[in-house]
Amino acid sequence: MQTDLEAKNAEVERIASTFKTDEKGRFSIATDQFKDYRKAVDAAKEVKSAIETINEATQLREFGLAPAQVSEAGSDAGSTYAALEGKSLGDMFVESEAFAAAREAGFGDRPHITVGIEGKSIYNFAAGTATVQSLGSAQHLGIAEQARRKWHIRDLFPKSTTKAAVLYGIRETGWVNNAAQVAQRYAADGTSAATGGPTDVFGRAPVSQLNLTTVLYPVAEIKHQLSAHQNILSDEGRLKTFINTRMVEGVKYAEDYDLLHSAGGGEKITGLFNTPGVQLYTGLATDKHSVQIRRAITKALLAEYDPTGLVVSPEMFENIEVEEDDNGAFRVAVSVAVGAEKRIWRVNVVETTAMTNTNFLLGAFGLGASLHDRESVSVKVSTEHGTNFTDGACTFLASERLALEVPRPESFVIGTWTAPGTP
């Protein structure tokens, strides 16, 4: 189409070159010439409009495939580094100058490679460091698309970091709101109508009650290691996939599970399922699964909290998506499909295998709980671990440090599914 547009522009220029001018510089155009010129211009405009329409459709498709909200690292990076959005941890690893130098040396004199994300991505070897901006969301390249970035529970939280090893906070355990209208003046007893005399007193604000308790939130470390043959260091495509899908996702899955179920104690975070004060809800057999979620939302709203996120297992979210109304139509398919957003009842949805098929979690992420990154995910690789040298192997280590603060546990509701129609 671009070639066709160029040909039609050439035709417009050819016709224009036949226009005559008099001694005063005025155009002299025959009627047939003008008709041909107008026809050529209209044809060029049609091709140009078609190209613009295709470009707009492509942009809309890319917008629909993008995450519903700004990626965590992209938000931290700011608009100055927007061009770096779309690069994964594996991409940045193999594109770093430090990795290139190590590869040039045959990975012999630089046995340790580290890639981390903490505001910025830092690559360091024994010989020095190089700094680049932090990572962003998944980028789609034409027909050969990369996999969409999987949503995790941390995506429901606003971005937050800490430099502390232990967080000291306050948790609300009860609230009585006595706010009320107050007149300017009352009688001497403070409650009766003012008399207008000298014994009248000013209206005093009622006293509300807020029960608080101090809580220590430890910074926990999540890590794992995997070994591979050293040849993976020379295979950039496989190395990127290995880092992104095995090392990073391994940490993220454990993070999902711990944010939900960790028992706490010592240096371990206390998951939301084990946090005192979280509300409980059991679905009714007379309600379908989507209705059970809506009633759990009401439970949170009655506690004066507006839920922002829902965590469910993949199997149960499938049951919700294929749920039919009384006319045989899918109840929530439209709201899920538009813009590729996972939302139900105006709430963002994260489906994870870290959630069991018997429960779901609903809550005000950010207001009721905060996730604080001490050290975001880093990946290290060494050829000097154990018998790696003689085995021709290398060992990868992925780790992160984070803390979970839950100051308002009433903002979360743990739901227990009840199969619709159960006697």
State the CATH superfamily name of the largest domain.
hypothetical protein PF0899 domain
First and last CA, distance: 64 Å
Helix fraction by DSSP (H/I, runs of at least 4): 25-40%
Alpha-beta classification: alpha+beta
**Count of helices?**
10
SSE layout:
Blueprint: H1 2-16, E1 20-21, E2 27-28, H2 31-65, H3 72-77, H4 89-95, H5 97-104, E3 112-118, E4 120-125, E5 128-133, E6 166-176, E7 185-186, E8 201-202, E9 209-218, E10 220-229, H6 236-261, E11 263-265, E12 268-270, E13 279-282, H7 289-302, E14 309-312, H8 314-321, H9 333-337, E15 343-344, E16 347-351, E17 359-363, E18 370-382, H10 388-391, E19 393-405, E20 412-416
Parallel strand pairs: 13-20, 14-16
Antiparallel strand pairs: 1-2, 3-4, 3-18, 4-5, 6-9, 7-8, 10-19, 11-12, 14-17, 15-16, 17-20, 18-19
Helix pairs in contact: 1-2, 4-6
Kindly describe this structure.
The chain is 30% helix and 27% strand. By secondary structure, the chain is an alpha+beta fold. It has a 6-stranded antiparallel sheet. The protein has a 6-stranded mixed sheet with strand order 13-20-17-14-16-15. A two-stranded antiparallel sheet has the order 1-2. A hairpin with a 2-residue loop joins β11 (263-265) and β12.
